[in-house]
Amino acid sequence: MPCRALLLSHLLLFLLALGRASGTESSPYLPAPKDVRVYSYNFHSSLRWSPVEVDRGLVLYTVHFKTGAFNQWEEMNCTRITQTECSFPWSLKERRWTVVLRVRAELGQVTSDWVETDPFVAERNTTIGPPNVKNVIENSDSLLISVTPPFGSEAADFLQYHVSYWENATSTAVKETRTSSTLFKIGNLKELTLYCFRIQVELRTRSDRRLLGLQSVPKCHRTTLSEATRAGYIVLIFVFVLLSVSVGLFLLWRHRKTIKYWSQPPLEIPAHFQEYLKDPSMPVLEVLDNCAEDDPHDSLSVVCFEEGSQTLDGQAHLCSISHDGEVT
Asked: How far is the C-alpha of 30 from the C-alpha of 295, rounded, in Å?
């Protein structure tokens, strides 16, 4: 019995030394990564996990993959990396392939356990985002919308757009329409009304699998006026202006005497006349005469000669004619 126990202990020590030398055995001292999952959006896929926290040293990670057709683990260009994310290579771009991935942590010669993911199929497990709205043209009774797909579709793919729209004032009454065209119209709308819409993509693959994407953020646009309504508004404005002018002219003619009375300046007697009327003995007339004499007046001088006569000093007689006809 003692020899058998000694033999078992030596065998155990040998196996432990062999495991340390190879460095391939997992160690309970290094925890495995957690929250390992495949993140896929619009068929762009990657493997993500939470970092492994240790007291000392830099933890590295290694990722392997295998497909449903070949049950053999292969490296995925993510060997001994420091990041906690590994993108799928081009070799895994096929959407119908079933892919399984695994990741482990490494610290020097110590490695953690492998953590495997569930089987992943892109055309079944990816998240499809909303389409991109390129342009919206507002009309009086419709909205013309142009969109682009959220991803590049393959030859056998069929994309259908689910459009929900509603009048902004009554958002509870939501209408829906479907189309496979990237240029479509929402019709039968009211004029000068704000409408909101959102779109989501439905993908139907070659295997007749359907995958419904996320809805877009609501976008709102207001419809315009039609030409008939615009012409009606112009006619109404013209009639209103014409009626206003006619009413204004009629009121002016109707109250012309009152307007003329109020528009004339008030007639007032000058202050010196008022004083004279109050006291006739005041020398107002003398002031008026002086004012009259001070007024300049035009005078005309005429030089005349009597026929056959000459003056002693050789100068002609000078006659003055005032403005009142006096001649000197």
From this structure: 126
Residue 5 is predicted with a pLDDT of 42
Closest to 166 (Cα-Cα) out of 191, 186, 148: 186
C-alpha pair distances (Å), 197 with each of 26, 165, 173, 215:
55, 4, 12, 10
186 touches 177 (CB < 8 A)? yes
C-beta atoms surrounding 133 within 10 Å: 16
- Per-residue pLDDT tens over the stretch 106-161: 999 999 999 999 999 998 999 999 999 999 999 999 999 999 999 987 877 899 99
Name the residue type at position 94. Answer: E
Q: What is the DSSP string of 66-85?
A: EESS----EE-S-SSBSSSE
Residue type, 309: S
Alpha helices in the chain (DSSP H): 2-22, 122-125, 227-254, 256-263, 271-278, 284-294
pLDDT at position 282 is 59
Q: Which amino acid is at 74?
A: E
Q: Are 237 and 199 in contact (CB under 8 A)?
A: no
**Predicted confidence (pLDDT) per residue in 195-208, tens digit:** 999 999 999 887 77
